[in-house]
Amino acid sequence: MKKQFAVIGLGRFGGNLVQELAHLNVEVLAIDIHHDVVQKFQDIATHAVQANAMDESVLKSLGLRNFDHVIVSFGENIEASILTTLQLKEIGVKEVWVKASNAYHQKVLDRIGADKVIHPERDMARRIAHHITSEKIIDYIEVSKEHSIVEVLATKKVSGKTLMDLDVRAKYGCNIIAIHRGEEVIVSPSADEVIQKEDLLIVIGHNRDINRFEKEGV
Ligand code: ADP
Question: Which Pfam family, any one of them, does this sequence belong to (predicted)?
Fold first, then answer.
């Protein structure tokens, strides 16, 4: 059965999320308290509804308990975000993801059972910081506090070498899980794969190990 998504709060983040889900041909219910905002999503979302999500009876009447995944994005309206999250969990929504505005908000959301707390500005800032402080790091995704996936540019130093020559796992403790070469992506490359200049090596591991690999190994 197709997964059912709902996005509540159609501001900058929620609005973009609805657009992307619609591009992916995913069915999405879009909810906002403001009529004019809802209007803009009438032709984009599968359904766009004006409602105050803080009201439990509204959440019930919209049938949100049957949705697999609900994302709450209320910007600075922390009170609304907390109340809505609480109610969505109470009516039994399996996955409730919530955008947090600050660390305090995040703490409360974690306590009341949000399944994932999203920090788009902070996460994007981290990705960009990694990108601009290293000429080799092209992209960065945090997997946990200590682990990440990083896209590292292969320099002249390693081009022509095989993955076996690099021996990244033994020397640095991290793993090359894919190679991005032009339009092609080589997933789980074999040990005899020859690295070419300008390849993007997708590496997963502990931040400390990735750092060492990026500085000394590539
Ligand atoms: P963000 O910065 O998270 O992208 P914005 O502040 O740009 O968020 O937008 C938040 C949206 O959430 C606004 O469109 C606002 O109308 C909507 N909103 C705020 N409170 C409620 C509520 N109680 N129920 C439904 N929508 C709400």
Answer: TrkA_N
